[in-house]
Design a protein that fits this description.
593 residues; alpha/beta; Rossmann fold; 4 domains
């Protein structure tokens, strides 16, 4: 086979070689282009799958969302430093349990020095109602604001947000009252309203004179739930009693936070100033009265018998007090007896007052025209304030008398009060039969521990054997009126003798009853140290509570203020026997009864 010859073989080779090189370059280009197209298609497919997945996730989240947004679930935007993308992170709410000292709260709201009384005046209970549903929200709002201002959490750095949400999981109330507590009393109604607001109200029956175990039950439950996983993050105590300090300290030691809600007039100074027992500043209810109190509607403000207006009661009692001409006031027992003697329809007025207002004392306190002063146990002195006429005129303008009231006032008169002063004001005069000699005298409150009696009293012969002349001479010696029959003179002298007998004041009786109760539980004897500890865990007498404006103190504190020491009180009392007394050392206390 012959070879083809070319006149320019180099050129041919060059051209041939160029053509081969060009062909190879086109093939590589096509291959690279195909690879690139393939990768682009793969990336597009991946993007499509990612889009489908995102759409699927979005639709699933939409289906799972509640109809209403969860107020306790807050989403925070967090920026990823590596990708620069924003993510939404849900923050679980802090769980709060509120523990309420119910007895303390009742007195703090209804006593004369309560913040509500100071702002809205007496009788606020008939113009406003306490919104118990708002109370947990008010407390949580304050705690949340304090958390935000503290700035410990990174969530609080965003000033546009209010910080981590707070959820109240339970409100627990601890209190007691006697079985005969009227159902229309403010105390009974308050705890019924709490139950209606879904509070857990732990009600105990008061046996005897002193409330028992309420503080202990609250403290035990607070510590119990502190040990239950996820029960609460914050325990809020609604009280002003420093007896809860140990429970608050132990709760913090369990890793829980502790808050305190109280009122300025009834919060113990130790609780307010000690920062090691709580994690928040005190939430004072005084600052939130506008949110906690709701004005009553006119049809809600009236309670009880529609035939008996408030004006009628005010007029009857004020007339009775003024007719006595006793500047210091009238004994509450006399007012009660008088009200019981008057009837409107088929019921006496005293029963009506108890049914509508929970008792005579409660009505007088909220009346705005009477001054009520404590005297003996279950008794008090009542006088008329200077603004009484003005208040009654305003009350009269708003009163529409019923037919029963109109008939009552047709026969109503105060003339009989003047004619029978001795009978109507029996407990208001210093002694029976002495009403005419000292019309403006005041029965002195029993504030001294012992009234020293005349040693001659025991030597007086039987008065019935004395002649009228001898009885009159005895009356002169005692400064008593000498007019009257023999029976009147005997009665007058015996009443004077009775008034001079040694009498214990209510505080002594209260403290003795406490100690005797403790000794009985201990088998009749106990060490002075145990007695002191028991008094320290119990509250002071009701009289002391009234005098202090509702601020409660321990019974041991009251004892020391009045008698100086427990040892001195035990020695002076005839209810106890003390053995082993050596200086200020511990001794043993026995019951002499």
């Amino acid at each position: 086979m012959g070879r083809i010859q070319n006149s320019n073989p180099g050129n041919v080779i060059t051209n041939y070689g160029f053509r081969i090189f060009a062909a190879r370059s086109d093939a590589e280009y096509d291959a690279q282009k195909n690879d690139l197209d393939k990768k682009i298609r793969e990336m597009e497919e991946q993007q499509r799958k990612i889009a489908e997945m995102m759409e699927s996730l979005t639709s699933r989240e939409t289906r799972q969302q509640p109809l209403e947004p969860n107020p306790f679930q807050q989403k925070s935007r967090v920026k990823n430093s590596s990708s620069g993308m924003d993510f939404q992170v849900s923050s679980a709410p802090l769980k709060v349990m509120i523990f309420v000292d119910g007895t303390w709260l009742y007195y703090s709201l209804h006593e004369a020095q309560s913040p509500i009384h100071l702002r809205y005046g007496s009788g606020w209970q008939y113009k406003y109602k306490f919104d118990w549903n708002s109370l947990p929200r008010v407390i949580c709002k304050s705690l949340q604001e304090q958390d935000k201002n503290l700035g410990w959490s990174t969530m609080a750095q965003d000033t546009k947000r209010s910080g981590r949400p707070i959820e109240v999981v339970r409100v627990m109330v601890y209190t007691s009252y006697k079985t005969d507590t009227p159902k229309h009393s403010f105390r009974y109604q308050m705890f019924q309203e709490m139950m209606n607001a879904k509070y857990d109200v732990h009600m105990m029956e008061t046996v005897g004179r002193v409330e028992k175990c309420i503080d202990i039950q609250l403290a035990v439950d607070m510590l119990h739930y502190a040990t239950v996983p996820d029960a609460y993050d914050i325990a809020v105590l609604l009280s002003g009693d420093k007896d809860f300090m140990p429970a608050m300290i132990r709760t913090r030691q369990k890793g829980r936070r502790v808050g305190l809600a109280s009122t300025r007039t009834a919060c113990n100074r130790v609780l307010r100033e000690n920062s090691n027992i709580k994690d928040y500043d005190v939430v004072f209810l005084d600052d939130y009265l506008d949110e906690l109190l709701i004005p009553m509607k006119k049809d809600e403000a009236f309670l009880g018998n529609p035939s008996l207006s408030r004006f009628t009661l005010l007029k009857i009692i004020s007339d009775f007090v003024r007719a006595s001409r006793l500047e210091a006031g009238v004994n509450s027992r006399d007012i009660g007896r008088y009200m019981k003697s008057l009837t409107l329809g088929s019921r006496n007025l005293l029963d009506e007052v108890k049914e509508i207002y929970g008792g005579l004392y409660q009505f007088l306190v909220v009346s705005e025209i009477f001054k009520v002063e404590p005297w003996e146990r279950k008794e008090f002195l009542v006088s008329v304030e200077s603004n009484a006429d003005f208040v009654m005129q305003q009350e009269l303008k708003d009163t529409r008398f019923t037919r029963e009231e109109s008939q009552f006032f047709e026969d109503y008169s105060v003339d009989s009060l003047e004619e029978n002063r001795d009978d109507f004001y029996e407990y208001s005069f210093p002694a029976q039969g002495d009403s005419t000699s000292q019309p403006n005298s005041r029965p002195a409150p029993i504030r001294e521990s012992v009234v020293i009696s005349d040693p001659k009293e025991d030597n007086i012969e039987d008065l019935s054997s004395q002649t009228v002349a001898q009885l009159k001479e005895l009356c002169r010696e005692r400064g008593l009126p000498i007019s009257g029959r023999k029976a009147d003179l005997v009665k007058r002298i015996e009443a004077d003798k009775e008034s001079k007998k040694p009498q214990k004041r209510p505080t002594e009786e209260y403290l003795e009853a406490l100690i005797l109760e403790f000794l009985q539980a201990k088998g009749g004897q106990a060490s002075s140290r145990d007695v002191g500890r028991y008094l320290a865990t119990n509250k002071a007498s009701p009289g002391r509570l009234v005098e202090s404006g509702g601020v409660r103190t321990a019974a041991l504190t009251e004892l020391k203020e009045v008698h100086g020491s427990l040892q001195r009180f035990i020695i002076q009392s005839d209810a106890f026997i003390a053995k082993g007394i050596k200086g200020n050392a511990e001794f043993t206390v026995y019951s002499s009864k």
